[in-house]
Amino acid sequence: MASARRSKLDPVAPRDVPTVVVSRLSLYLRELQRLVLEDRATVSSSQLGKALGFTDAQVRKDLAYFGHFGHPGVGYRCEELIGAIRRILGTDRQWTVTMVGVGNLGRALLRYKGFASKGFRIVAAFDADPHVAGVKIEGIPVYSQQRLVDVVRQLRIQLGMITVPASQAQQVADQLVSAGIEGIVNFAPVTLSLPAEVGLVGVDLTTELEQLAFAVANRIGTR
Amino acid sequence: MASARRSKLDPVAPRDVPTVVVSRLSLYLRELQRLVLEDRATVSSSQLGKALGFTDAQVRKDLAYFGHFGHPGVGYRCEELIGAIRRILGTDRQWTVTMVGVGNLGRALLRYKGFASKGFRIVAAFDADPHVAGVKIEGIPVYSQQRLVDVVRQLRIQLGMITVPASQAQQVADQLVSAGIEGIVNFAPVTLSLPAEVGLVGVDLTTELEQLAFAVANRIGTR
Asked: ipTM score of the complex?
C-alpha cells in the first residue's frame, strides 16, 4: 500500500486502532442490532452512547478511526452502520470455526445460538473422550481428537476455540496450527505460545471476576 | 485521604489505573503462580514479560502503577509479588459469589476449579427450572430463582454471575441489586443497566470471536 500522507480525519490502519476501540465496536454492533429489532432506522451518537454507558464524544471518536458514518441532522443509519462495523470486524463474511474440548463449557458454546448469526459457523468439534466422539451436538459432529489435523485441513477450518484443560491446551494449539488454523480463542487458563501470524485471543473466566473484585474492593465505578 | 502532592514514582489511585493494566495484573498473577509451582523463587521483568508476550518495560511500567516490587540484582520475588498483586486486586480475601442460571455455561462455571483457589467461593446457585432447583452441583446448592433475594441477603453474597438467557438478564440483575449485591459478571449477551455503585463486568463470548476475526481479517498480530 502507498504510504500517502494522511489527514487527521482519514481512517487509520487497522493495526493502529487500540484493542479497546475494537472491543467497543462489538458493543455498538450489538446495540444497533437490538435497535433494528425495535424498528429503529436511525440513532444519534448520544443515544447510542447512553445505552452503553459511554459519552457521545467517545462514540464519535471510536467510529472516526474507521471513517465517516454519521449524517448531519440524522445521526447514524442503523442498518448502514451495522454493515460498516461488520465489514470492519470482518464478520460480513462466514468464518468456519472448530471447538476442541466438549466438556460443559464446550457444550455451552456449541449450543450458544449467537455465533451463527454473527458469521461464525462451528462445523466440527473434537474431544479426547472416545464416548463423546461420534455424537452430534446441535447438528455439529464431534470427532475424536486424533483426527483433528486431518479434519481441520479437509474442512479448511479458519478459527479454533480451545476449551480443554490447561494441561492439554498447548498441545491442542500446536495441532491446530499445524493444520493451518488462522486464529485461536483460548478458554484454557494458560498462556499459549503460537507463531506470530496466528491470531490469539485469550479468555480467562477467573480474570473477569478479578477485574470485578478490583473495582468493588476499590469502590471504582466500572462504567 | 489527604491529597498530598505525589512524585511520579508514587503509586496512583486505583481509579486512575487503566483497565487494561488491571487485566494484565491477572496475567502476571497466573504466570507467577505457575512459576511457584515450578519452585522458582524469583523472576526478572524480562522473563515474566517473555512468558506472556510483553516487553520487560511493559511489565515494569504496569507494576509501577502500584508500587515498587523489584529488588536490585534479584528481580521480583515470586511469592512476594503474588501477595502484592492479590492485595491490589482484592483477591487476598474471600469473596462470596452466586451464579444465576444453571444451564450448560452455568454448570461449566460451577465445575470450574479455578475460582476457589483465587478467592472466589460460589456459595449458592439459582435456576428458574424447578427440576434443577434442589440439587447440588459440586457441593453448591441450587435454589429456585424465586428465593434469590432472600438467600442472597441471608448469605450476604457479594458478587453475582449471570448466565441466564439475554431476555431475563436485566430482571435477574435488578433482583441481585435489590438483594444488596456489590458487583456482577454478566455473561448474557445484553447490556445491563445498573446503579453506578454496583460493579459490572460484561463477558460476551461472541465479542471474543469478533476480536479474533478483526485481527485475522486485517492480518494483525494479536501479540
From this structure: 0.82
